TrEMBL record:
Residues 351-373 have a biased composition (Polar residues). The keyword Plastid does not apply. It is found in: Cell membrane. It is a multi-pass membrane protein. It comes from Occallatibacter riparius. This is Polysulfide reductase NrfD.
Length: 373
């Protein structure tokens, strides 16, 4: 029961129940009018902590930088050579933090490799495990290929052979599908949960993708600094503007589609971080600074703010699930189907199957009174 001891939210009544979750003691008939399931939250609160928020942040930068560097490399334009090199280094460096963060969050960290025993096409989490493995493999290969073989104290022949058999451009192209999966899969994964703040929309995937590309481009711009290639600087700034616009559009679409489920971001515990950090610091301020006459503001502060805003966005979205799960009203809206029938299992005629609402309403009374259904 170590997990239950981590819950400090007074609204989480599960922390006050017995280890066997003795629902009958709390779900009494006089509480039938209360929100949720006789006053109890319908959903279990997620136990994700800071590890997952940081994982979403680092994998977004890594995948975004990899995608940009791979596309630039595939153009064959020598002007992008330094950009490609920096992108590969950023992708590798930020990817290194991802596996430890994910493994640390597991209940049984020593079993992390079990995710790779199968490929399950219907599981976004399984897709993410394979995407992270593929992205990490190709990002590592590209980083190793940047080392001159002559400088190695050992393994020179092997590295030289690999560099001849696998050109860096081919490796970069092979890793691109994995990076493209990485930029958006966390949002798709969250949408498949029952948590209202995540599941009441189809725009978390696009939002994560836009944020990943935005932070990846910002990391590249920050690494490039105030270079002598003004045209390349302008192209990066233009791409940052496009990514920021896509992120803003995704945020608007998310808010419009999720509706009341966005309460953690509008009036809840994550509102300040979301509005001031993700929107103000991550989108609005960099857009203004990129049009400044000061090269320091354009090449240093604007990218830094974009990266900080990306962290604020991922942190707010991750932690909003904690509050949303405790919102019995929102969770109850998500439970019954629009037709009044259970939304799970095979469909049947209304006259032959009891509605989910009536079944839930009658269950505790039947259990407590001892009457048969």
């Amino acid at each position: 029961m170590a997990e239950l001891q981590e819950i400090n939210d007074p609204r989480d009544v599960f922390s006050q129940l017995t280890p066997a979750y003795d629902i009958q003691r709390s779900a009494t008939p006089e509480r039938v009018g209360e929100p949720g399931y006789y006053g109890l939250p319908i959903l279990k609160r997620p136990f994700w902590r800071w590890e997952i928020a940081l994982y979403f942040f680092f994998e977004g930068i890594s995948a975004g930088a990899y995608t940009l560097s791979a596309i630039a490399d595939l153009t064959g334009n020598e002007r992008y050579a330094k950009l490609v090199r920096r992108g590969r280094l950023i992708a590798f460096a930020t990817m290194l933090a991802c596996p430890p963060l994910l493994i640390a969050d597991l209940g049984r960290p020593e079993r992390f490799h079990h995710m790779l025993r199968i490929f399950k096409k219907t599981s976004p989490m399984n897709h993410g495990a394979w995407a992270l493995s593929g992205d990490g493999l190709f990002a590592t290969l590209l980083a190793v290929f940047m080392i001159p073989a002559a400088r190695l104290p050992f393994g020179r022949v092997l590295l030289h052979l690999l560099q001849r058999l696998l050109p860096a451009r081919v490796v970069s192209a092979l890793g691109l599908p994995f990076a493209l999966t990485m930029i958006s899969y966390p949002g798709v994964l969250l949408e498949t949960t029952a948590n209202p703040v995540w599941s009441h929309t189809n725009f978390l995937g696009p939002l994560f993708a836009a944020s990943s590309m935005s932070t990846g481009a910002a990391a590249l711009a920050l690494a490039s600094g105030n270079s002598n290639d003004h045209e390349l600087d302008r192209q990066l700034a233009r791409f940052e503007d496009i990514s920021a616009a896509a992120e803003a559009a995704s945020l608007i679409a998310y808010a419009a589609s999720a509706g009341p489920a966005t309460r953690p971001f509008t009036t809840g515990s994550q509102s300040a971080l979301f509005v001031l950090g993700a929107i103000g610091l991550g989108i609005v301020a960099p857009a203004v600074l990129r049009r400044s006459r000061s090269s320091v503001l354009r090449s240093v502060f604007a990218p830094l703010m974009t990266i900080a805003g990306g962290l604020a966005l991922k942190w707010a979205i991750t932690n909003a699930g904690q509050e949303s799960a405790m919102d019995a009203e929102l969770a109850n809206r998500n439970a019954p189907s629009s037709t009044g029938r259970p939304f799970w299992g095979p469909r049947s005629d209304a006259g032959e199957q009891q509605s989910s609402d009536s079944f839930i309403s009658s269950a505790p009374t039947t259990l407590i009174s001892g009457e048969s259904a």
